[in-house]
Amino acid sequence: MAGTTETGLPRGFRGAEQGWPELRRIPRPPHRLPLLGDVLGADRHRPLQDSLRLGRELGPIFRRRAFGHEFVFVWGPRLVADLADETRFAKHVGLGVANLRPVAGDGLFTAYNHEPNWQLAHDVLAPGFSREAMQGYHRTMLAVAGRLTDRWDSMLAAGSTVDVPGDMTRLTLETIARTGFGHDFGSFERDRPHPFVTAMVGTLTYAQRLNSVPGPLAPLLLRAAARRNAADTAALDRTVDELVAARRRSGGGEGDLLDRMLATEHPVTGEKLSLQNVRKQVITFLVAGHETTSGALSFALYHLARHPEIAARARAEVDRVWGGAPQPRYDQVARLRHVRRVLDESLRLWPTAPAFAREARQDTVLAGEHPMRRGAWALVLTPMLHRAPEVWGEDADRFDPDRFATASVRSRPPHTYKPFGTGARACIGRQFALHEATLVLGLLLRRYELHLDPGYRLTVAERLTLMPEGLRLRLERRSPAAADGGSGAGRPVRRAGD
To answer: Looking at residue 44, what is its pLDDT?
Structure first.
């Protein structure tokens, strides 16, 4: 490894063998091959779910070896709580996240801790997620959701099922593009995904594939994929550059995130984001601002369709809280407490950003057991943390929104629910995503009955983020009396797919 970073840590990849002095004490899979490592039975298409399987077998901390490097995985609640200590640990940019740096550079998600643009962008953009800002976004979220229901109404009228992941991706891309950047991708007017989405999926998939081959052999083994990834990256850059150029020509928008990026000075230093960094921040928000939320909505709709009794309870809450108002007010969304619990429970079982890495700020001992040198890191497997039986019970795989009732939440130890990461580098857009998703679930529950094909079995696709694969739903339009807060006695009037 050549040179060091400004923090004094070695540049490039740091395997666990460099940072964990007592690595041999950590369990590993039993059948290890020379040179290749722990690859027997590995699923390179679903590496996260493969690691979850090993976590169940090996316990709350384990290691794997692949292509000459050791990796440490953690999911035990006591260990994760210690890793959440910001005085001793910080975000580690590694594995798939580091592979995204050619796309997102020093954007908020992919910046190294020592890079100044992270703090600058965070301080400049944080007011864009205040309560006042969120109230302004609410109107646009409603407008985009209206385009979704128009699409679903037309699919219902044609007797067709709806493509849940595809339509949730359309919805969330348009929402972040319009609220943050005043741009309309026209996603609902397209039969196929917008080219930006296609390029984004390509870069995420390539970033994950890079983890499945030895680093020195990647240029050879992934030559064609690397060319496609370069074209995808160029397409993302071109789309964003055109968006930024149009805004600069217009002289400004309505004070959205892009205006903040281009014009706002840091409140202390007076510094502004460079145009190059603006590009990286826009890509970061467009990708992270819609990819994870679309997955969360898709999983939530799957669970609602699979558990009609839970959907009925949530629907009754929407009818009661929103009443006959044509559109809910901003403050009425937060009052959908059971709907929010459905969302939280969906994110517990399948957090769409399913892992985060933490590195030691100085030499330390993790949970009093495992020595770590400065710069040593571990990957937290969030779906396993969210299934820890000592926290969530022996039925942790069961979908139960009441786990997030107020009394239950207060009784749980801290740092046991982490769908948005942890610490200073946790997701800046968390409240944006939760408001958008709760609003959309309320609107869909108010309007439709949701039906799952009895033969569907949940398959989780991985592209750094998680998404239910091949999920389609049949719809029934609720009667106007029920959907508008009436007695609920009216029956559904039509089922898509009949």
So the answer is: 80
